[in-house]
């Protein structure tokens, strides 16, 4: 999802949990959402909910806020998931105490488990004479939902949406789960989030309800949402109030888009109209293409060549990110000199800085692979690229960039040596140790770090150093490798400009020889 790991720790502020209510038909999802909505203490001052916008926020007596997705059925949840937008932090699984586990209950469990979203069980209709909450809990065991009363770790609360009983316990359970998840986001950045609902309104034009996941969305911002873009003319909440801005976890309707984006599509604020139009145009063109052909799809160098041959396009789109403006420009110019009568390289975007989500979206929509020169993609961008089939190639020598493109154009063999990133670690603290020098206390965040492999030091997604490890320690012992989730000590050979927050990338060079096409 949108876990803002590339935002600095100190910028992260606690945000409200986003809750989806799921369960079998008639088990009381709508009734429970209505009942929870009525617990809002802010409703008194500001007036209650006046319109359905697909999500709403309630404020509890203690001041905590909870955002509920108010979209019917599991369809919205699946749509968001299939587009990779993990908008939901916690699933409330509603099970009627007089009916127990039913097919859609099981489906909801599978959705939540597949998304890795924690579940809270709300056993509803406990007011009914034939209610049997105990049977619900036992039945859930078969689906690997083990509630706390049965020595598991899933919270379960008995409620009655009708009698409005057990709601405090339920919101307490949500707060507890939210605390465990330590949900945070940086509010001081360009907003990103997900589209929950959209429609074209007679009077107001296209209206999209969005949920901000990080950053703050402001009136006047230029946003791209799916293949639509526009300047945010107005932000409206579920009470029909106009907002100046929407912070993380705040849902709001936005007015001003040129068309209605699909639910589940991501939105992002971009720097200017030209950029917005560029991204939206590409996406629209891609949608039309996808509608007319079965091919569609990814943006790897090979796929792109195959497509070029198919539609006899004369241009080979490429996107370049580099450590400094100078190298971005140099690569762009050299690339655009490459080519022959059949195909020329066209650089759709060349800029300094790490590869971010906006780059990946642009690459995807223009069918361009990303060439990253001495820079890296952040985690969100890497995940997005993987989902969208966008290839990111990493280089540290300009000549290799040009060579790769030239060879691909000529249908030659791909480079024989390729790097595999095998792991990442983050520096938590730097220690100065006499006679040894600087040692970084790290946590391996992904994959595995091996003593003998190549390592790079990254700061702000930019490569500062490439070399080898001098030590790799667990506690006092030198170890051959350390896996994700584990803390360790590392020191570099002949390099000690280490800082808290730096990333360490671990790579292996593999030999490959494959024929293109
Ligand atoms: P959904 O299909 O899951 O959204 O279920 P609804 O909220 O529409 O509820 C289905 C039916 O169950 C309605 O007739 C509700 O009035 C009833 N219902 C919902 N919650 C309760 C409850 O806590 N107790 C009782 N007795 N009936 C309930």
From TrEMBL:
Localization of this protein: Cytoplasm
GO cellular component, one term: cytosol
The entry's keywords: Cytoplasm, GTP-binding, Initiation factor, Nucleotide-binding, Protein biosynthesis
Domain named Tr-type G: residues: 14-184
GO-annotated molecular function: GTP binding; GTPase activity; translation initiation factor activity
Primary localization: cytoplasm
Task of the protein: One of the essential components for the initiation of protein synthesis. Protects formylmethionyl-tRNA from spontaneous hydrolysis and promotes its binding to the 30S ribosomal subunits. Also involved in the hydrolysis of GTP during the formation of the 70S ribosomal complex.
Protein name (record): Translation initiation factor IF-2
Organism: Maricaulis virginensis
Section of the entire sequence shown: 347 to 863 of 863
